[in-house]
Amino acid sequence: MNNSIVEGILAIPEVRIGLIDFAIRILDKTKDFLVELREKENNKLLELKASKVLVA
User: Fold this and answer.
1) What distance in Å separates the CA atoms of residue 26 and residue 24, rounded to the nearest whole number?
2) Residue 1 has what DSSP assignment?
3) 16, 10 contact by CB (below 8 A)
């Protein structure tokens, strides 16, 4: 695609807003995924610590 065409498309405010909204949705989903992953890892760590206490 020609750079001038892309620049022309990006000159449209509605297109820029749409791209920003899309990026925000992707970042929100990424954040949700990472928060869930962190919670799972924390739960695994707590289970490991609990099992070590039970063994000791």
Assistant:
1) 5
2) -
3) yes
Of 16, 10, 22, 13, nearest in space to 1 by CA: 10
Roughly what angle, to the nearest 10 degrees, separates helices 3-10 and 13-55?
80
Specify the residue for token string 């449209």.
12
The structure's pTM equals 0.68
14 φ, ψ (degrees, to nearest 5) = -65, -35
How would you label 20-40 residue by residue, b for 16+ Cβ within 10 Å and e otherwise? Answer: eeeeeeeeeeeeeeeeeeeee
- pLDDT digit string (tens) for 1-50? 578 999 999 999 999 999 999 999 999 999 999 999 999 999 999 999 98
37: its two tokens:
């992953």
The helix (run of H) or strand (run of E) holding residue 49 is helix 13-55
